[in-house]
Amino acid sequence: MHLQKLGEDIAILVEGGRPHIGCAVLSVSRKSLTGDDSASCTTSVLNVTGHRDEEICRLLAETAAKKYGVTVTATGGFHIDHITPEEIRDVMDAVRSIADEI
């Protein structure tokens, strides 16, 4: 993962396994619609047909947008042939840890 500040905003490039672009996620920070003044965001996603990279990129973009109150884009992809459900869980656990440290 590579993180780049763009003025006040953040761009995140994700790659793992066979690098590619599988999706692009844009998260725009805002206050929650619950009225409790908590941080939230509005997110838009573009996926390449047949790709499932959104879960990784969305988690990173939304976490950073809420934490810093800025606009964040995350793009890239993560591909491992014949990945198992257990390996997917391990990858997502690692991504959650990374997101917490952004």
H/E series: EEEEHEH
Task: Give the uncertain stretches in residue-range form.
Answer: none
Instruction: Tell me the helix content.
Output: 25-40%
Spatial extent as radius of gyration: 14 Å
Q: What is the oligomer described by this structure?
A: single chain
Number of beta strands: 5
Strand order of the largest sheet: 1-2-5-3-4
Please report the number of helical segments: 2
The largest sheet is:
5 strands, mixed
- Morphology call: globular
- Provide the structure class: alpha+beta
**How much of the sequence is in beta strands?**
35-45%
Return the domain count: 1
Topology-level CATH name: Ribosomal Protein S5, domain 2
- CATH arch. level architecture: 2-Layer Sandwich
Distance between the termini: 11 Å
- What's the CATH C level? Alpha Beta
- Overall average residue pLDDT: 93
Report what the structure shows.
The protein is 31% helix and 40% strand. The protein is an alpha+beta fold. The chain has one domain (2-101): Ribosomal Protein S5, domain 2 (2-Layer Sandwich), CATH 3.30.230. It has a five-stranded mixed β-sheet with strand order 1-2-5-3-4. The longest helix is centred in the C-terminal third of the chain and has 17 residues, at 85-101.
